[in-house]
């Protein structure tokens, strides 16, 4: 009759066929949120519109509470830095498109039961902070370093395992400059909002969100591979529970449309009137620069090339695209598709895995074009 | 074979018994979001944590686009004001707790199919703007005024009706000072974020969110009662579809707990260790000041008085409360209950209506207290 942690946790599972979204998934959906797709119009996503996923609770950090970042483990000079110390290092600002590894999960069949994203778990911001490689150089990483482990202040239990949120990067990535990993203290020029990691977070341009550890308080260099829950259990691409699986790392290409016209409140179906309609949106890839965006108005049977905005030098941020569609009365399914310089693109059939990770199925936007003389 | 607006809309309906949350409800839940309940710790909710409900799309208003507010209808001097004009009027800042009229809807049986809130559709901010009564006095309201209609820039269709979002206040409320209604241009000292109505919104302290029209562009004084969709069709308390129903107006009392301990990622169940646990939260009512907050650890069978924080003079904002619970190993359901100066309180049985509006059923927070020596 003991009361143990395992009693609070539910195991990983797949939804049954036709099983609606459950109370547990809804509880995640009401607290986390995606980018309302019309906000794809902003180059920089306003902080309250940027997607947010919090594994446990958002830590409450009073304004006057000191915050220390430890850099320890296989280093010659362990460091303990406050925010003023961090500001003595060179400062870098990078525009980064951040996407949740679970984006698209709720559209999969069968549906992995977890945060039920449709396609909206994305956002772009300018993050300012210290290059991680400079902090690690100051600490003096030992030659036998294998992984660098990042620990956040958010605390909870997941599948029976009590934990502070922790993720690692390979030492070569953490000390490298492609991408330039940041220990960030500002978002769009202001201190980090609570839900984005106040006061410090990691930013790993090109990688899915699980790598960008929020409320960062410890960096530990290890000489053995990190096997924590979020590295070895969660965030792996597996088809069967017993698979070892591949780790989730860089963001696969994706394009999203600004839904045209106006919506129905409840169905979210889109309505347009006949005539020229500008179709626009964003495309990104964490693997290589986006080189192509295409649009379909017939659910992917045929594709039209969209015009990519000129390269603005923001390698790690989404790129705007647009084209014109001449709408005539009828029902349509609009889609967009991104391709990157390495030839990665998006599938029309779902790329399925048990976690619903790194799934970049093309978006489907049902649109109704009204009769020209519709008086209703 | 016509293509009409009605084809994009779904009618109002109730979910079948045991019907899971649908794709349409999920599409609303992923774009709108509640207050993560741990953020009840903030006196003022950071903007990205404040609840958001958008009926249609968030209008995109470029920084340099001029915005005009019209004040027309039954007035002697119609006005057309830009933001600089508004700043020439006296400025008032009011701390307001704002709650969605549909808060709690997804917990009802049967469940009205709409935005599926659990209990988190709330937030508190300081809104700065011009008292509406001063603008109406400048325009000179005619003696036959009945309603004042507020029109936002968000456009969509709802149950077959294409519309800009519109709501009215009785002329006596709009020209009164209890509450002091504001045409607000700032939230917590900064320009309104896009999702909170940039650049202008109405703020009606004590009323549910549907009255606080965002992206406000027109105020029309009428000599007949306003019968627009959001006034006469939606936002009414009805038990049967054919009922005329009562309009939704002021916020019923509610108390919410900061969930104690730490959560399981998926179940959101809370875990605490044995010993003293501070239980704290907020209580509010739009009808009268909160005079009492109580806490139960046995699902409402017995109640303990909580200590209310001293009155801070913010009549329209939530009030903090706290008490201490000595947890022993076991399973609990925590609840909180608010009572206001007019004796309104919260029910233990659901107050049901077809829209799921103004429902202030007491919150239930399942908590597991671990064995003292739990080593897991």
Automatic annotation (TrEMBL), chains A, B:
Tell me which UniProt keywords the record has, alphabetically.
Metal-binding, Molybdenum, Oxidoreductase
Where is the secretion signal located? none
Q: What Gene3D superfamilies does UniProt report for this protein, alphabetically?
A: 2.60.40.650, Oxidoreductase, molybdopterin-binding domain
Is the keyword Oxidoreductase in the record? yes
Query: In what residue span(s) does the Moybdenum cofactor oxidoreductase dimerisation domain sit?
Result: 274-367
Q: Which residues form the Oxidoreductase molybdopterin-binding domain?
A: 57-229
Q: Name one GO molecular function term.
A: molybdenum ion binding
Which branch of life, at top level? Bacteria
GO biological process terms held by the UniProt record? sulfur compound metabolic process
Instruction: Give the matching InterPro entries.
Output: Ig_E-set (IPR014756), MoCF_OxRdtse_dimer (IPR005066), Mopterin_OxRdtase_euk (IPR008335), OxRdtase_Mopterin-bd_dom (IPR000572), OxRdtase_Mopterin-bd_sf (IPR036374)
Is Oxidoreductase among this UniProt entry's keywords?
yes
Protein name per the record: Sulfite oxidase
Which species is this record about?
A: Streptomyces dysideae
Highest lineage ranks of the organism?
Bacteria, Bacillati, Actinomycetota, Actinomycetes, Kitasatosporales
């Amino acid at each position: 009759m003991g009361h143990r942690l395992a009693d609070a946790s539910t195991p990983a599972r797949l939804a049954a066929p036709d099983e609606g979204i459950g109370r547990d998934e809804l509880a995640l959906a009401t607290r986390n949120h995606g980018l309302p797709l019309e906000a794809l119009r902003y180059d920089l996503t306003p902080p309250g519109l940027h997607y947010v996923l919090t594994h446990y609770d958002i830590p409450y950090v009073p304004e006057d509470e000191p915050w220390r970042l430890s850099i320890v483990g296989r280093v010659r000079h362990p460091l303990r830095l406050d925010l003023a110390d961090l500001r003595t290092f060179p400062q870098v600002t990078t525009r980064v498109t951040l996407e949740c590894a679970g984006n698209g999960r709720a559209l999969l069949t069968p549906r992995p039961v977890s945060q039920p994203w449709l396609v909206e778990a994305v956002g772009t911001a300018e993050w300012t902070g210290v290059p991680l490689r400079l902090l690690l150089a100051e600490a003096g990483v030992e030659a036998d370093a294998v992984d660098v482990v990042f620990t956040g202040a958010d605390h909870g239990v997941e599948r029976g395992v009590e934990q502070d949120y922790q993720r690692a990067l390979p030492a070569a990535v953490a000390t490298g400059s492609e991408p330039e990993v940041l220990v960030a203290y500002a978002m769009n020029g202001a201190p980090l909002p609570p839900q984005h990691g106040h006061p410090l977070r990691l930013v790993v341009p090109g990688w899915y969100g699980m790598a960008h550890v929020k409320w960062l308080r410890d960096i530990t260099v290890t000489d053995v591979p990190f096997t924590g829950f979020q590295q070895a259990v969660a965030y792996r691409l597996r088809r069967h529970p017993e698979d070892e699986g591949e780790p989730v790392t860089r963001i696969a290409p994706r394009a999203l449309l600004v839904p045209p016209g106006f919506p129905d409140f409840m169905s979210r179906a889109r309505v347009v009137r006949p005539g020229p309609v500008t179709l626009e949106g964003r495309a990104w890839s964490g693997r290589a620069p986006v080189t192509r965006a295409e649009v379909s108005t017939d659910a992917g049977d045929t594709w039209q090339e969209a015009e990519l905005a000129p390269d603005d030098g923001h390698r790690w941020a989404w790129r705007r695209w647009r084209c014109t569609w001449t709408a005539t009365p009828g029902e349509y399914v609009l889609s967009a598709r991104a391709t990157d310089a390495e030839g990665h693109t998006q599938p029309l059939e779902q790329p399925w895995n048990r976690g619903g990770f790194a799934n970049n199925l093309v978006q489907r936007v049902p649109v109704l074009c009204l009769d020209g003389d519709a008086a209703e």
